[in-house]
Amino acid sequence: MEAGGRLAFHLPAVKDSHRAELFSLLLRNEPLTRADLAALASLDQSTVTRTLKPLIDSGYVTESPAAPAGRGRPRRVLRVAVEKLCAVGIKIGPRVISGVLTDLGAKVVARRELELDHPGPEEALAAVAELADGLLAEVPGSRERTLGIGVGVSGHVDPPSGTCRFSPILGWHEVDIATPLSRASGLPVSVHNDVNTLAVAEYLFGAGREAEDFAVVTLGPGVGLGLVIGGRLYDGAEGLAGEFGHIPLLPNGPQCHCGRRGCLEALAGDDAISRAAGVPDVGTAADLARNGEGATKRTARRAFHSAGEWIGRGLAVLDNILAPELILLSGEGIAAHDLLSEGITSSLRDCAFEGARALERLRVDSADVNLWARGAACLAIQQSLG
Ligand SMILES: [Zn+2]
User: Fold this and answer.
1) What confidence tens digit (pLDDT) does each residue in 272-309 have?
2) Distance, CA 243 to ligand 1 centroid (Å)?
3) pTM, rounded to two decimals
4) Near ion ligand 1, which residues have CB within 5 Å?
5) Ligand 1 centroid – CA 351 distance (Å)
6) In terms of residue numbers, what domain contains 94?
7) Where does the chain show beta strands of DSSP type E?
8) CATH code for the domain of 24
9) Ligand 1 mean position to 220 CA, how many Å?
């Protein structure tokens, strides 16, 4: 892991790690005076002033008098110049590709979605280019002001090369995302693990705002994990951390699409639930569990309960190792939280070292569908700060 500042996201293009750090801190806490920002970053004011100068000169950050608080000289405060520039954020999922156009403060100004069932790389990247194009066409004048495109994709991603090394859910191996997309769009492209983009968005704008250490666990087709430790995104050696869905829980358990057996994802992902319920997809399983009758309803409810128990067991492992201030449950699978929660709760309480305390730190996210793509846009903005 590269030594960087807080949420500098260790992007190599950010030559001055303080710059990305100060920008993130400002985005999370604005408005701030120079002194406040220096204190938050644990830097001296002259370093802050020197580091901010290019950001102010290029218009990323403005400094203006705040409304005077009582008598005396008005304090000058720093803000991110949100309207001046924009970024595109995209999440490539196994069934939906979603995208947003955001301002510099990552506020969504346009959004679009495309449904594609398990697209191959070529089809997916053509769709992403089309989606980005549509977003930029929707807001006149945005193309010239766009800093870049951030893409979040599941699995092992290598940000420096913009490559998805291996995504079990998508069935992709060694897919170069940045080169073709950059050629098609004429914009810089940065590529990241999708749960990491979500963790960044949670840290800056979501439930993670309150915490310096937290874990985001996503439920859905896959089971993912994003970690922020000490205000830093932690992605491990070669970006391999967070493969939470592939912790081995059941010897000789069901086959996982990663090639192994008995992984958490193979026991508690959408496919596991629909298979156990004996229906083609998880939406039908949820419908049966809530509104069905007799044996089919009971079978569907058991499928969710069992998945919940495996998730709780996985959370106990996570909590025993890291005990983060917050464990956020997120992702599209949260839509079935009413059906999963009993299993999750009982199993986490019974399996974690101090189960009752672990439960207190577990929180269900409000599941803002745009957060993933917003996080990807944030990473595109960060990338451009270099
Ligand atoms: Zn697996």
Assistant:
1) 999 999 999 999 999 999 999 999 999 999 999 999 99
2) 9
3) 0.83
4) 246, 256, 258, 260, 263
5) 21
6) 84-200+371-384
7) 61-65, 76-80, 86-92, 96-103, 108-115, 146-153, 156-158, 163-167, 172-176, 189-193, 214-218, 224-229, 232-234, 326-330, 362-364
8) 1.10.10.10
9) 14
